[in-house]
Write a structure and sequence with these properties.
Layout lengths: L12 H7 L18 E2 L13 H14 L2 H7 E2 L3 H28 L1 H8 L3 H4 L8 E5 L2 E7 L5 E9 L2 E5 H4 L5 H26 L6 H17 L9
Length: about 230
C-alpha cells in the first residue's frame, strides 16, 4: 500500500507494513460463519461510540487522526502486558502523527499534510465507515469498509463488558512476546522520526514541502531497515 509520495501510512498499519517480515501471526480477520447477520450499508451517519462495531471503528479512526490518547485507549483492547506495550507505542505514534499533520497543514496546506500522514482514504474520511458492511456473531463482529479506490479493508471487533473494541492484535498483528520485543524499537524509531520532522516543519527548517516529504520518506525508510532505528541530526 505504500507508494512514492505516500510516506507515512495510517498509524499502526505503517508498522505492520514496515515490520511485516518480523510478524509471526496474521491479523484476526476471519470471516463470520455462514448465516451470521449482516447489516446493509448504512444510509445515515453512524454515531462515533462503542455501542456498535461500526461506531467503535469510527471512534478508532477519529481518535487516531486527532491523536486523542484517552479515546484510543478506550477503544483498543490488549490481552496481556506485552500487548499493552503495543497500545502505548501506538498511542505515542498517533500523537506525534497528529502533531505532524497540524504542522504540515499550517505550513504547506491540507493536501501535503494528507500525503505525509495517511495512506488510506478510508481513515482520512471517517464517513466511509457509515456505509461499511457489519456482521455480528455473538460477541464477535467484522466490519468491511470499501475505500474510494474500490479496495476493501476488513477489521474484526470484540464485545467486551457490553461495548465494542478493537484488539491491538488487529492493528499490529503480532502476539509472540519475542516478536513484540523486536517490533517495539521500530515503533519507537518511527515515532521519533515523525516527531523530529514535525519539529523541523514547525521551526521552518525545510525550504519546501517537497523537502519535508523527502526527509520524512528517507527517515522512515531508514527506520524500517535499521536494527536500532534512524539517527537524527540536531
Amino acid at each position: 500500500m505504500v507508494h512514492g509520495v505516500k510516506i507515512v501510512a495510517f498509524v499502526g498499519l505503517s508498522v505492520v507494513l514496515s515490520c511485516g517480515a518480523m510478524a509471526q501471526e496474521k491479523p484476526m480477520v476471519d470471516e463470520m460463519p455462514p448465516g451470521a447477520p449482516a447489516s446493509a450499508p448504512a444510509t445515515r451517519a453512524v454515531p462515533a461510540d462503542l455501542t456498535t462495531p461500526r461506531g467503535a471503528m469510527k471512534v478508532f479512526a477519529m481518535s487516531v487522526r486527532a491523536g486523542d490518547e484517552k479515546a484510543i485507549r478506550g477503544v483498543l483492547a490488549a490481552d496481556n502486558a506485552n500487548e499493552a506495550k503495543l497500545v502505548d507505542a501506538l498511542v505515542n505514534m498517533a500523537k506525534s502523527t497528529a502533531r505532524l499533520r497540524t504542522a504540515a497543514v499550517a505550513k504547506y496546506g491540507a493536501e501535503v499534510a494528507r500525503q505525509m500522514t495517511s495512506d488510506s482514504p478510508t481513515f482520512e474520511d471517517e464517513t466511509s465507515v457509515d456505509s461499511a458492511v457489519e456482521q455480528i456473531d455473538g460477541d464477535e463482529a467484522t466490519v468491511e469498509v470499501t475505500e474510494k479506490s474500490g479496495d476493501s479493508a476488513i477489521l474484526q471487533l470484540s464485545r467486551i463488558d457490553g461495548t465494542w473494541h478493537i484488539r491491538i492484535s488487529q492493528i499490529i498483528p503480532v502476539k509472540d512476546p519475542t516478536a513484540i520485543a523486536t517490533i517495539m524499537p521500530k515503533m519507537a524509531a518511527f515515532e521519533r522520526v515523525i516527531a523530529d520532522v514535525a519539529n523541523r516543519i514547525e521551526s521552518g527548517e525545510y525550504a519546501s514541502a517537497e523537502a519535508a516529504k523527502s526527509d520524512l520518506l528517507d527517515k522512515t525508510a531508514a527506520a524500517a531497515n535499521a536494527g536500532d532505528g534512524p539517527t537524527t541530526q540536531p
